[in-house]
Amino acid sequence: MPLVVWVLALLLLLLLRLACWARRRISTARRPPQRLWQGHPLPLRALAVLGSGGHTTEMLGLLAGFDQGRYHFQFVLADTDTTSLKKVGAARPDLVEDTSRFHAVTRSREVGQSWSSSAVSTARAFLECLTIVWAIRPQVLLVNGPGTCVPVVAAALFFELVFGRPVVLIFTESFCRVKSLSLTGRMLYALADVFVVHWPALVERYPKAQYCGVLM
Questions:
Q1: Alpha-carbon span 49 to 47, nearest angstrom
Q2: What is the pTM of this model?
Q3: Partners of 104 in beta bridges
């Protein structure tokens, strides 16, 4: 069989795989909750992304609602983030007892950084996240909007697409987003399995969103 036929057949298979993955993953409508890990041995491997400033404070509030016996969390933060570890240590000293649970990656974009150089730093962060996500194999990914979460999510979904390693993506919008979504929220809206907002007005504009009260 000519090489070109093999190449075309491979491309067709890849396109079919992408179409099947996209049909399951991408949606702007709320879906019934998945039972993906029901009956799976506990604790589940979970990965959360910390962001400097209010993002980490909000994430700590979210983590308080997770049964630590059911979820073993590891964390990703930007390498220039000098505050998140201090905040976690002050609020949850149990989480910083094992420093191997924290993984630093290149910050995707610093405040005021040009978009051209941001593309380079984001690509570098994505490659670093591929290594981290491959090693952790997260079953649950919890993010709440910092730019650092974008390459982490991209790495997790890449492995889901290519290697069939499923992950439940939970996105919680920032408390300060009252009438509109953040840039990260708009990027991940159609990809998240669960999309949570803190204000009921957002549910009217974004039907996939779920309002569960203030979760902090």
A1: 7
A2: 0.91
A3: 77
